[in-house]
Amino acid sequence: MRTLTPAPRSAPAGSPILLEDQDRRRWDIAAIRRGLAALARASTRGLGPCGLQAAWTS
Fold first, then answer.
1. Which residues neighbour 55 within 8 Å (Cβ) at sequence distance 6 or greater?
2. Where are the strands (E) in the chain, listed by range?
3. For 24-49, b where at least 16 C-beta lie within 10 A, e where not — what string?
4. How far apart are CA 35 and CA 2, in angstroms?
5. Which residues pair with 10 in a beta bridge?
6. Nearest of 25, 27, 32 to residue 40 by alpha carbon
7. Cα–Cα distance measured from residue 7 to residue 22, given in angstroms and rounded to the nearest whole number
């Protein structure tokens, strides 16, 4: 899920912006919701890290 908000998470020079300093209005809410839904599907099936990645791509 960390790739869901690339632009708001980096400064123009490419340096990371701390979570507390990010403008959350710029986050991709639809992508975050998709990621959370994938995590929920995977967790109800008891999947590990590989299962979480597979659920994200499905």
1. 38, 39, 41, 42, 45, 47
2. none
3. eeeeeeeeeeebeebeebbeeeeeee
4. 10
5. 16
6. 32
7. 10
User: Cα-flanking dihedrals φ and ψ of residue 16, to 5°?
Assistant: -70, 150
pLDDT in tens, the chain (58 residues): 455 555 667 788 888 888 898 888 888 899 889 888 877 877 777 777 777 777 666 6
Q: How far separated are the first and last CA of the chain, in Å rounded? A: 14
Question: Which letter does DSSP use for residue 16 in this model?
Answer: B
